[in-house]
Amino acid sequence: MSRTHTPVNMAFLILLLICFSVKPVFSKPVFPEDENISENTFSTESETKKTESKIITDKKNSNTLKKAEPLFQDQIEEPYNTFSGNTYLSYNDMKNFSDENPFYILSAFLLAYPDKIRTTGYDFRAKDWFLITESGVRLYWAKGRILPEKSKDKYQEFKPYVFYLYPETPYSKESFSEKDIEYFKSDNFLNSRKQEPDYEFTLYEELFGIRNRQSVEQNLETVYIFGIKTSVNKNIRLPLEKALEEINRQAETSKEIKEFIDTISDVHGYNWRKIRDSDSMSYHSLALAFDLVPKNWDIETIYWNWTRVFEEDWLTIPFKEKWAPPETVIEIFEKNGFIWGGKWDLWDNMHFEYRPELILLQNLLKGKEQAKK
Length: 373
Description:
373 residues; alpha+beta; four-stranded antiparallel beta sheet; three-stranded antiparallel beta sheet; 12% strand; globular; peptidase activity
């Protein structure tokens, strides 16, 4: 059995060192700008808590997704320190970004789930970043897969938890290069979706109590979205109801929002299934997503995979030609942690899912002055 430095073990080790008059050496806060770090230096959970005090203070003081204070913004490498709403990263670009920025992504998780994630840090023995959940489970970065120690060397078998940056605005034709456009039209793109692996679900078990169909269904709660009954994970019911309350209040004075609500004919929440044309489980399967289906959904330009059948240039269809919720509705959902599928490259304009970490990551990357606007 391999030895791990749990907080108890570390406390005992420190006590022994003190007894023998040996001064233990701990690292200063380990952030991306640190250089020439000794391999003999290691972090402990208690020390990590101290070094991450700024993040912990921020997360404890915010129960909604206000614009977060960016952390060490000047250390983000180009082009990400000028991140804008229309910055599109290809798969390889995003892989490079993820590999180089685990600190920022884990910080976003820490801010997004303050009651579920205790701290983050760097394990010098494992040579990897990690987070520790409130139940004491340590999960390693593992190239973005966020895995328990027993699985971290098999990271290629799993899907990264953050494999795209959530943009501030929907993509336009100018967001994509000709190479990007040709790729999305190719068989290679469709084949890659069919071969896409799934997440390793320990993280979601810690955040939402879900690992398989049985656990998902044990954690379902009924909600009414614009008067239509559906089911979602119990951990997202409160932020969802908070968003709906504000939207309904806005509808009392906004003709646009009232008319939008009146056009919704159905709401699709929990549904145990895979993503269409993929082997990866849908967020609907996890009860973390819902679709707002309009009355004329069959004649609307609403979902890329339906439109692709008859429109070759589906990727670059102008936004104004697609069905979409009012901007205020989107903003209210985002403020409460729900991202909108209409901002994806593979646009799904009826879709919302609970990913507060992506919104907070967007704010961290936008920079301090921009985040305060």
